[in-house]
Design brief:
279 residues; 4-stranded antiparallel sheet; 8 helices; binds zinc ion
């Protein structure tokens, strides 16, 4: 599932392709991708609008238009695909033999941007303004932003009795962390994911803040080398597993102390951690 670093890498790659471009035409091949909105709302909002900025907030891609905005959310495996023109899109999109799955496409003068999610969890939405989207307006501090300081983070931790892992997944507190990078941050900070957020001492809170920032920076570097390739519909991020120290390593030796990494269930999600060195 794409988390903050993956979405940031997508945004940086997308920006030079579409920023300043006018959307000539909107194709909605699979209306489920715009639910609970509908295809005509998206087409009405986006057609003939110019993309002024490409931004990210939490795990959302924001396309700010000269009127209103579009949001893309990849959920589990949504992705972007680029076509050189409308003819190529119609030739390849969703055809039976060797076709490319596309749910929604935006046609520009210089190419076509497709949004695709075979499992149809990902969404493309149109909004008049940011506050209209409940998901976006409830987001907390973005973990890559300047506002995410050790001081602010410590205050947030102090106000929560939830286990650390649940706290980190809560997008209304810190936006952008998912299951993978919250497990990784806790491993680097040597903190037990089951501890209550408010039980952290100031030094531990600082350690966790530092771990989050450095884990995300490292993952972003990895996501940009190689950069996303929207021309290849099979493309996905490579090499991230080599930077993982806890996530997905159940039964393998902890890189710090050698004990076996354990997997437990927390709020319905798998948490990976080392019982020996995460206290
Ligand atoms: Zn360990």
């Amino acid at each position: 599932m794409p988390e903050l670093p993956e979405v940031e890498a997508v945004v940086r790659t997308l920006r030079p392709l579409v920023q300043g471009q006018r959307i000539r035409c909107v194709h909605v091949f699979h209306p489920i991708a715009v639910k609970p909105q509908n295809a005509s709302r998206l087409a009405d909002a986006a057609t003939e609008r110019c993309i002024q900025r490409v931004d990210r907030k939490g795990k959302y891609v924001l396309l700010a238009l000269d009127r209103g905005l579009l949001t893309l959310h990849f959920r589990l495996d949504g992705q972007l695909v680029w076509f050189s023109n409308g003819a190529e899109l119609l030739e390849r999109a969703n055809v039976k033999e060797n076709g490319t799955h596309v749910d929604v496409a935006f046609e520009f003068g210089r190419g076509v941007l497709g949004f695709a999610d075979r499992r149809h969890f990902g969404r493309v939405h149109a909004w008049e303004h940011l506050e209209e989207s409940a998901g976006l307006s409830s987001l907390g501090i973005d973990a890559l932003s300047k506002d995410f300081t050790a001081g602010r983070f410590r205050e947030m931790l102090a106000g929560s009795a939830r286990p650390l892992k649940d706290f980190l997944l809560d997008q209304t507190r810190v936006a952008g962390l998912g299951n993978i990078y919250s497990c990784e941050s806790l491993w680097h900070a040597r903190l037990d994911p089951r501890r209550r957020a408010k039980s952290l001492k100031p030094e531990e809170a600082r350690r966790l803040h530092k771990a989050i920032v450095s884990v995300l920076a490292r993952a972003l570097e990895c996501c940009l080398h190689p950069a996303p390739d929207f021309h290849d519909s099979q493309w996905w991020f490579q090499g991230l597993e080599k930077i993982l120290r806890a996530y997905g390593r159940e039964g393998e030796a902890c890189r710090r102390c050698g004990a076996a990494i354990q997997r437990i269930d927390q709020a319905g999600r798998s948490t990976y951690f080392c019982r020996r060195c995460q206290k």
